[in-house]
Amino acid sequence: MSSASLLEALCSGSGARLALGTSIVAYLIAYNEAAAPALVFATLLAIVYGAMAARCKSSLRSLQMPYVRATNKFDFGCLFLAIWMDALTAMCACAVLARTLSACLDAMTGGLARILILGRNSPANEPWPDVLGVAVVFLVTGMFMLGLEHSKAFSFIMTLGMFGLNAILSAVGWWRGDFLAWSENYFQPNGINSFLLTTALLSYAVPSVLPQQHRGARSTAIMVFALVCISLLLTAICLSTVVHFKLRDDYVAVPLFNILDESGFHKLVPASACMLLLTSSAAFMEIFPELYGIVVRLATSEWRILSKQISYESSDSGNPVLAVFIAGSLCAMLAFACPLQHLSYCLAASHLTAGFLRAFYLLYTPYRPKFMQPSSSESSLSYSRLSTAPIAKSSSSCSSAATASSSRVRRSLWNLGLHKQRAMKKPKNKQRTKPEVEKEWLLLGEPTSPCPQREGRDVESTVLSDSEPPPSDFEYPDKFDKTDSDTSTDIDAIVDEYRQKIKVTTAGPMERSVRVPTVSSWRVTIFSIVVIGLGIALCVAGLVLHWAPAAFTGAIGVLIVAMMMGIIPQYTGSVINVSPVLCALCLLLSVVFFSACAVHAWPGVLVWVLSGLTLLLRCDKYCCNCFDQPTVLNAQLIPSVSGKASTSAAAGTATSIRMPRPPKGVISLPQRVSGIR
Prior knowledge:
Amino acid/polyamine transporter I, amino acid transmembrane transporter activity, mainly alpha, 21 helices, two-stranded antiparallel sheet, disordered C terminus, membrane, transmembrane helix, single chain
């Protein structure tokens, strides 16, 4: 592992998350939410959950979204909601940093900035509306619209600010700290619920994605997570020696200033505000590109959710101006009106929801069969011999021909094995005593109408069967009769070329050696996922009602069912290969942590999810035609003509052809310009 790879991992967003966790979120938890000793234990659990969530997100890195969008709408919707919640997470993080910057600017001026803008009667803790925060967001948005790009200089400034803050906190703990908090209840004020809430709020501080798969990637990931864990633990231990938990009426926005005032270091408030300003501004400039990057990604051809004009880069600045403006507007709205407590809760809830959706997708995807067994055994491709016998006019002849055709079609494309080489050999020519008759072959089945009188021993080509092929009475002539029309010769050439080029292997031995998912195993998987959901619900109910046996029973049940899912047939050769136990545990922890912080966050998360669903369901009308892709693919296939199709065609049913819809809006015809010629 090289230091360059570690620096690259920290500059790709992990450093900004760590700065937000150690400089802002940890202080908010220790001063407003729970006792500082709970922060130490919550850090360990947050690291474990973050590693599992990062493993799930990294496994989807090489997923081909156009293929997912064209094949399965449910999968595409699940993955879209996950990235949609990532956008909400980035917005809340930027809003938290903007409100912190506003408080730092006010503290550096001694409160004069707030008084000049909002007046003397404005609250000093968390003014509303936060005009300074909105001004900061607009300033950063304008800088990125004019061409500002992400740089490692931001990470360097952020690192200096973090070192300065940790030095100030360590000095305060060394001179004024004690360990009285460790002699009291660790999980004040609400016991296990406070511990779960602390873990949920800290979950965003852990890296959300693992480094790229290269040499030394595993050691780089271990070093990144170890660095994050050590930083959070040191901050939590220092806070546990300084802060003594007590219930407060108001939610303090920037607890660092209050801690310095209560410890007798009020002269360090401007210096700490300057350090926090550097850290927050650099972290904001690292997280904000992630937000408008998500907007650009949703507008590309990979997702095709938003209009593609949003992803266009300006020729002057080189940045996507529309995407930057959209991201900045959303951040400004959140920073303008939302209190910091609601923003921190919504930050944790959206991050946990995104992890839940990815873990759920990875849990069921490997067990779903790629091809469902059809209910009827009709084939979409068959070869049948055209008879030149006179057509019978009676209805009995038509019914007997349709019956013979349907019996031949029942032997589908998957019921004849070609592993017998003698079936592919060309039989010897026999002496023909009867006069030559014209033989025609139809590539895709029976003629539509009328019903001809056929011989009883015609043969058809079928593929993939374990049984012996039926004996054939057809003779392959060396030379075909030349007629005035070359239609029969062309069809014979196509059939001959198809027989020579198509090579099919039998599926029987492969199914005996490799266990692939089937419809039955898929039903077992669905039942297992339902049982896992019931176990999670039982665990959450036990935690809410403070009933420990129910919580332990639900958690153990989830673990047992996830371990049993390992024996169900699944696809293991794809790029998505995550253990079901890891996915189930990630689901369990996501729901448990979400239940702890859902008090203030569920309205915002619900509104954001509904807006995403609305955009997903209506994007085919307003932005693109992504959900018409399967229909277009099916329309491009050549339809099969079977016995039933022949009967329906004979009955007079019409074939419907899907045409492109007309353009929207008023279409005006060009008018003739009258004038002197």
